Amino acid sequence: MTLICRELLFKKIHAQRPLSRTDGLFAAMRCSILPAGAAIFCRSGSKEPLFGRHPFRRLCGGSLGESDLYSRLLLALTHVGSYWEVKRIHGRMVTGNFMSKSVLVCRLIDRCFVFGENGDADKLFEQLWRRSLYCYNYMMKGYMDRKMYAECFRLCQKMVSEGILLDAHCSSLVLTACVSLKDIGQGEAIHGHVLQRGFVSDCFLVTALVDLYSKCGQVGDARLLFDEMPLRDVFMWTVMIDGYLANGMYKEALALLSGMEAEGIDANVVTWNILIGGFIRGGLILDATHHFRQMQTAGIIPDKVSMCLVLSGCAHSAMLKLGRESHAFVLRKGLKVDQFLASALVDMYAKCGNLDLAYYLFDQAEVKDVGLWNAILAGYGAHGKCKEALELFSRMQDSKIRPNQITFASLISACSHAGMVNEGCKCFNIMIHNYKIVPRMVHYVCMVDMLGRAGHLEEAHQFINDMPVEPSKDVWGALLGACRVHQNVELAKVVAHQIFSCEDVDDAGYHVMMSNIYAETGKWEEMGKLRTQIRDERLRKKTGYSSIELENRIHTFYMGDTTHLKSDQIYAVLRVLETIYSLDTF
Fold this sequence. Notes:
single chain, mainly alpha
């Protein structure tokens, strides 16, 4: 009997005589249609435990062995169970002397990771009588899925100490952790192991090494590995192109794309998405849209990822016209607007100034995940509609969507710009105490900015001193900006000293701000000393700029810029406007 026939028969029987949760799961296991059968009983809303009144031994007869039944039942709990039921199975395995079966214990460890019980997974692993490479790979994958990269390195060292050699799969997992942490030292050690084990012809493993070296800034080494591979698949080409883009080497990336096509390897949608995303990250939105059109010319149909990338570029550059065209493309091609695409559309319209349409799209979305809520909250906050943002946050809580760090950063920022200090402090406390979210540096910056804007300078200073982590220059910079607004020179000196002692001050922006504070308060001698320091240390301030979209082009203007083709006409109009303004003022 085919799988589809078994599913239809199972559903028909259940419709005629609804089964208890345990009986139904038992029947589904017998029919080998566990995911479909389990889903039926999950939707039924029954609160009967899986092992309620029915003896567990009923699940252990028939043609399947008891070990296989345990394994299948653990798999089912991903869909319908709870961690309490995983622990029940664990207890049965202990009493049934199944803990010596490493394959079954690994399945139990996997369920622990699925339910977020990482500590229990560690304990089970340590209790294994015999830890094989298979067991280590299970643990390594669990750590990787939860981004516990430091634990991956610890596990790797433990493997070596126990005399277990890493295979190609385990090596690629560790290399992925190295890329995430940009740990070139650990990566080079794994590379040495790869050479020693003779894995140099493994395309997947060499691709991971290419990714490591390129993402850690050693593009030359990455290209050397790439060139030495006799057989290169489309995935390796894509990773090398991504490496060039990550290092701002756009010409080299395009040259590699041409070389890829010359060798008869067609770029797929993933390759084009990587290319478009790389140009967008570099702020080259028009180039990104050009390659988006080239992608279609090459016969590649853009997917949802492609559209999300283009829309994010439009949002970043406030290109409303291009954003509308992209939205029309989505509708014309009949792409399903899921929560990811809906979030990109809401974010684009909000950042381009059309908040009403952004809210309409948000309201029409069938599924509202945390990303979509964050997009609309950030939009309302950026437009100074703090009260509306807080009302939306209340609705978000009522809908049982758990907010994340981005949610609270948007809310506190909105409160900062609206001067709603009490509400902002309340959001900060809710984040820590109600949702147990550890604040990141962006939250501290927003809090200091909020207190500083409201004139609570001493309170902001005390808030920084009470931080459980070392404040960054941006945290101090937020307070320095507030000191300038409220002309508190003495506190500004203390803050400036903290900023200038930071190792990562790479431009003269804060030096110039402190110099302006001295000038505005008549302290010319201190201003002169600071200007001399800027000159002697050859510090440069990042130039401010503004941009405007006109006829499908982005026109960017820097301070005192005369490079635009029509700069003479632009400055002439500005002089006319200044004259009109001065006459009106007079």
